[in-house]
Please model this.
Amino acid sequence: MINVNSIRPVGGTSLRALCEVRPVPPVAKKVYIQVNQAVDGWESLPRTFWGIVPAAA
Model:
């Protein structure tokens, strides 16, 4: 799993911005994204999402 915590600009960022700095995974590869929210010094528990990379259209 790729740890994107090292890419944490002030004020947050979009998922697209994080994904654009990573290489594109091969077709049919299962990928995981783990996110959490930080507000006023409090941090939520991480949530994990996954998906399978589709073939290019």
